[in-house]
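Q: Give me the 3D complex with D-glutamic acid.
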Amino acid sequence: MSSPLPEAPLLFFDSGIGGLSVLRAVREKLPHAPIVYAADYAGLPYGTKSEAEIAARVPALLGRLVERYRPRLVAIACNTACTIALGHVRAALDVPVVGTVPAIKPAAEVTRSGIIGLLGTAATIRQPYVDRLQSDYAAGMTLLRHAAPELVYAAEAKLRGEFVNPQIYVDAMRGLTHHPDGDRLDVVALGCTHFPLVVDELTAVSPKMRFVDGAAGIARRIAHLTHGQVWPDEPPEGIFVTTGSVGDVESLRLALADQCLIQIKSL
Ligand code: DGL
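A: Here is the predicted complex, encoded as structure tokens.
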């Protein structure tokens, strides 16, 4: 395969702003990479959607985005989309696709008690994909699962500079610790890309808990897959694309600019 043009972007995809937690880690490794970040605000939240809806929606949207932006690589920065539709997307696109799946493997590597927590969306935590991650990487351990859709909204609100009731974080952690064995929980996998954006708030509730996510691993994987490729001398302005209206993301402008996403467009 010939080497991509320097301006060919990395395309990030999530239902909303969650993928910024992945983009941040990738930009640290590849600061000159041109970035297109697509947020499916017309479809947010994914966590309450059916498997069939996600499996139809995500490959169709990514098909349009790939046609428009000709990325060198697609990063699906959304656990819900990946645990349901990663295979469909890979089958539909002819560019490399990197996925984000719940960080059960890194959690299993650091737990001392053998009791791991998983916070994710309702759709993610019920997936057979998660059962497979558990049996492949955490066999013999206990995985406590809790759906915390309110953390998706908390992350969205926080990045818009809005007030978030701190009780949300207390409730999310209680959703894990109320399980039998919950008192021995020592590591929580943040299985939704929105959640690392509120890790400070979760840590304030559970200061001794270790929180892990997949962003660093994804950044390493993308750096590996693009190794030897040419990037622009100066990083171009990043592009943020929403499936919703541009006006609805106006209040995110600062948070986006923080990740060099300057141009805001509607798909
Ligand atoms: N950020 C997404 C994830 O990683 C999902 C949020 C949502 O749309 O419910 O699962």
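A quick observation: The first strand starts at residue 10 and ends at 14.
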